[in-house]
Amino acid sequence: MAGSHRATHRAPRARSGSVSRRALALAVVVALIPAAWFTLQRTFGDEDPKRPTSRGTQKPIPSVGTTPPSSPATTPPTTPAATPLPPVAPDSPRRLTSGSVLDTGFDESVEPDGDSFVARSTSEVSRWGSRGEPGSPGTDTVYVVGRTSGAFANLDDLKAGSTVSLRTDNGTLTYRVSAVTTVAERGFARSPVVTAKVPGRLVLIGTGGSGYRVVTAQLSAAETS
User: Domain locations in the chain?
Assistant: First the structure.
């Protein structure tokens, strides 16, 4: 009896300890609920749907560049076209002049003797007969031959820029000197540079020295008679 009474008396104490442990666990859970709620609020509660969060990627606003106004295109100045010279029909020259340097008439025309020229007259000059006649527009080079001991005695006084005029029955042709040089006699009349067909060109050939004195000029003005 006594043993049975003790066993019956211990059982309630065992249940009382179990209830105490449950109560303690429940108290711990209840105590943790506010902390968990506070943590959730800190994590998600600060996000305001009305304002963008810092975690969102905001696209940068493109800057609007200021383009400087373009300056109007400038048209380069154009060179005015040369005024055509008055037409003068080609004809045999009557007189050759250049200020106080030249003033001479024309003898009969000449042709090259082999590869050189021989001026017949001392006081006058001669035209290469089978080549060009002065005219506007020119059709070929005009060649005039004279002796440096005679009609072309002052040929060296012509310089680049000087003007030379040929008078014909149809008008007066004026040429501007571009070059003055001395050329060897041998092979002169057969040189392709000398004999090239150049419209509007005038070549004065001074003979009688050590080589030919050659003056080259280009048609620059024309006047009808």
Answer: 1-46, 95-224
